[in-house]
Amino acid sequence: MIRSIVLAIITLVLVVAIGTIEVVFIRNSYEKLKDDLMKIDMLTEAEAVTDEDFRPILEYWAKLKERSELFINHNDTTEFNMRVEECKAYIHGKDYQGAKTQLSVLIFLADYIPESISPHFENIL
User: Fold this and answer.
1) How many domains does the chain have?
2) Could you tell me the residue range of the domain that residue 85 belongs to?
3) Contacts of 86 (CB under 8 A, 6+ apart)
4) DSSP class of residue 125?
5) Rounded distance, CA 111 to CA 101, Å?
6) pLDDT computed for residue 72 by the predictor
7) Which residues are CB-neighbours of 28 under 8 A, at least 6 positions away?
8) Residue 96 in contact with residue 49, Cβ under 8 Å?
9) Phi and psi at residue 48, to the nearest 5°
10) Measuring CA to CA, which residue among 42, 53, 60 is closest to residue 100?
11) What whole-number distance in Å separates Cα of residue 11 and Cα of residue 112?
């Protein structure tokens, strides 16, 4: 009986600790991505963004996507990935309005995704 209680407490502590690490990792990673996207958004506003400016976002997202798929709904990562690719195409074609639209969605998703895994009562249900 005592052993079962101890194992249950240890399991609960591990679940809470791992969950906390997950939330902190995702929140920090997407916050950095959001900051980088906002810088690109300002360049897009000035119609000065280039493929080279967007390359670091592509590289960061490629790494983050792999890690994110462990923790986040695949539909969210797929949506983000599609928007990144569309934005890349708009930037390459110098369609600044199209790129700006995609960047607005990406910035929103960079806020939304970490919030969606945060332990809120409505997220648990």
Assistant:
1) 1
2) 2-124
3) 98, 102
4) -
5) 16
6) 84
7) none
8) yes
9) -120, 5
10) 42
11) 29
Radius of gyration of the chain (CA): 18
**pLDDT tens per residue, range 61-97:** 999 999 888 888 889 999 999 999 999 999 999 999 9
Instruction: Give the domain CATH number at 40.
Output: 1.20.120
Asked whether the beta carbons of 105 and 72 are under 8 A apart, the reply is no
- Residue 61's alpha-carbon distances to 29, 34, 67, 83, in angstroms, are 10, 11, 10, 11
- Which of 64, 37, 67 has its CA nearest to residue 53? 37
pLDDT of 50-63, one tens digit each? Answer: 999 999 999 999 99
CA atoms within 13 A on the CB side of 13: 6
In this structure, what is the dihedral angle of CA atoms 29, 101, 86, 92, given to the nearest 10 degrees? -100
Q: What is the per-residue pLDDT across 20-31, written as a single tens digit (0 to 9) for each?
A: 888 888 899 999
Q: Sign of torsion, CA 44 49 55 60?
A: negative
